[in-house]
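Feature request, filed as a ticket because there's no other form

It would be nice if the structure record came with a short human-readable summary line next to the tokens. Right now we just get the raw output. Example of a typical job, pasted below so the devs can see what we mean:
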Amino acid sequence: MFDPHLHRPQSTTSWFLLFLLYQNPRHQYGTLKEGMDPPELPECPVCLQSFDGESIIPRVLACGHSTCETCLIDLPKPPFPCTIRCPACTQLVSYPPQGPSALPKNIDLLRISSSLVQSNPNRLNPKPKTPTVSSPDFIPNFWSHEFYYNWKEWVIPQDTISVDSSVALDGVLLNGMVINSDASSSSGPSSRCSMKSHQKVSLFKVGFFTHNEEEKLNYSYIAKVMWILFKMRDISLAELTLILTSSLKEHRICTAYGLWYNKENEHLYLVCERKHTTLLNLILSNIQEDISSFAMIGMELCETIIQLHESKLVTGCTSLSCFGIDDYVHLSINLNDVFMVGYRIQNMITETLPISENKESKKLEMEMYTFPSPELLVEFVKKKDVDFDFDFVNSTISYSSDVWSITCVLLLFLIGKSFGEETHNFLCSYIFALINGNGVECKGLYMTWLDKISCLLDTRLGSNYVLMKDLLQKCLCLDTKTRPDVTQLWKCMRELIIKPKFEVIGSFEEKTIDKSTCHCLLLGDFSWPLKKTNKVDKNGFKDGELDVNSGVIEGISGNSLKCTDLKGHLDCISGLAIGGGFLLSSSFDKTVNVWSLQGLNHVHTFKGHEHKVMAIVLVNREPPLCISADNGGDIFIWTIKFPFEEKPFQRLNEEKDWRYSGIHALAVSEAGYFYTGSGDKSIKAWSMHDYTLSCTMTGHKSVVSTLAVCNEVLYSGSWDGTIRLWCLSDHSPLAVLGEEASGTSTFGSILSVSANNQTLVAAHENGHIKIWNKDVPLNPFSAHTNSIFSIYMEGQWLFSGGWNKTVLVQKLSGDDVTQIGSIVGDSVVTALLYWNGKLFVGQADRLIKVYSFGG
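Raw output as currently delivered:
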């Protein structure tokens, strides 16, 4: 006999139409209006092939949908035994261990398919989908999903680095040490680069975080990093991306491990590898007469700069401290130290401006072994709006700017201290003349200095190495276009050691010369100091500095997380529910309070329970119903409409047993049942039609503490540490989660569960949270230090609270969980509910706190 419940088609409308067509297809097709599409052939929802009786056989699942036998075999099976997800409705249903052949055939679909094939029907137009309206976010999305995924792998975990503050320079550059070699620890997202324990690193400040002292939400480590990055200019983010990726591609650039936030001073740092020895140590202790040593240093410098240029990066200024030396005496450049050089020069120019305005004479204090190219100094001074009376022809920043700097380093190694002193005096005078806007004096200073350097070279080299001497002097030209390429300098250094029989540099040289664009690090945002100031110019900069402060949290200016206290209960809050325009709260004071959602004022109190009310749930019907249950086993059903009645609409009672503690949890389904989780280890299903007990589900070994309904599945959590899944159509068991081989859970009792769409979340008494996304378990993580009494999930938001008086706010994106922040309260959190952008928090101190983001 045909069972309509087992063999019902996929919609009532299509079944009725197909039934008529099957009874009298010719008559029905004759009545189809012109322009009207005929009906579809029944087809498998997976392979979209029309059903037949041979290869595409429809098998009926417990949910009523039909899928072909071949697709059921190939479908991925959930981790729960003897279950499968229906491909049509995604409901978790029972699946026979023998396979799909044990499922019944949908004979009626096969008959209808045969009739429609003979009649060759057209297709029905599908009904338009009703647009869904999403509720507002608890906190506005300051960054997009794509932005987070692009940057999260560059964030270094908080407890990875220890800072040596004794070597800090105005907090801009710090030295640190890696104290945790596991960059992918549970403390935060993992960086792209692996770091070794006790490895030394340098940290350069790239941003800072500001917050409102009265802000209710304490933002998490990862949220602070993301907000700082998100509020940077696009050009700053592009520069940061270029630095991070270039350090991974080129081994001559010290590795940039990622970004680290220092919670002590609330600054974000770029973390780079730091070498034990620098070029400064080598040159000061090893200035030698040996020309081959000079050539070896020259080749290393050129190869380092060539790789820097391969990434389209230019410094325009180098210092001996910028170049580190590894165990094999190879050089590499530390970009953090390059930024620090730019910071020092910029700071020096800023301090010199008032001296210039007062026409005072003062010797500038610049590091002896720092060599900024003249064109870089011109650009630095231009940023201070200084007018020049001289046109600096061909003095733009280019790849040849680095040629000038490394040539000075080579001459220091070749000539010695006298070159350093002469160049230092020249650069200080040159900067002072630039600040005064005297370009003619600048050119005179340059010519005088170049003559002195030429004399020093003649003294050092005599009549030998004429070609090399000419090349070095050309590298010091003011006109950037006349300077030799860095590969020509490398070739000259190589020929001092060996003259190769074959020339192999041609293609490499051509590749370098063809480059037409470059990015100067010292003219970018990160080479300028970051200071907290209230002065903002029209371009969004603060005193000429990078502004990553303004608007980091939109709530700073009247749009922060607000809190409203609801007072009315006399004991601990045990449950929260929303419906009919009201908020309902249950309490250990044996009452249920009704609050207006519009004004958040108290409206009514339901009284009648003789024991502590343990749970509350709302039934969406007209009028809405509120179900409350206590630890004495009493169930009260109240009508939610104004004016409110004093007595319950229905009163039910579970059988009392002195060994158990009544009802602990409630849930309701759209199938016309509500469920109670009890201290006697069972779940009971009650009919909403006649309010009688329909069935009792057993299997848990301890108190059933929490219930949730989603996608036609009932989830029950228990003190035994397991979650059991029950089919709502026949209340049969589907699966058990959290049951270890030993029979006990390693995470302790489950105190709360929440289900949304295809995600299940469970909270344990040891502070851990478990998540199953599309039936696949994610790695458990420790969210709280103590028991989690309540957890609530709505869309992408996950809220949890418990014994530590803190509500943790997290965001779910697929398989990724991002901690946004925490709300610290003054009492134990016992109940949570999220609705329309507002978070309702029930506490043990009788208060209900309502948090909302906005003015």
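Something like this underneath would help us a lot:
The mean pLDDT is 80.
Residues 277-527 form a domain with the Transferase(Phosphotransferase); domain 1 fold (CATH 1.10.510.10).
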